[in-house]
Write a structure and sequence with these properties.
54% of the residues lie in helices and 7% in strands. The protein is mainly alpha-helical. The protein has one domain. It is built from two helices and two strands.
Length: 54
């Protein structure tokens, strides 16, 4: 059984769809580097949204 941060994929709420489909999408995006790129963009946006005088 695949788990990330000790959370079982099978316990994913139904509103996200079938757990296996969500896991496959997650696996594909993470292997392709998309999630890493998303994390980088999210950090840049958080940095840009800080008070410019701080």
């Amino acid at each position: 059984m695949s788990a990330v941060h000790n959370i079982t994929w099978r316990a994913l709420p139904e509103r996200f769809g079938k757990w296996n489909s969500v896991w496959e999408r997650f696996e594909r995006l993470s292997k392709g580097g998309t999630l890493t790129l998303f994390t980088l963009f999210r950090r840049l946006i958080m940095h840009w949204n800080r008070d410019p005088l701080a």
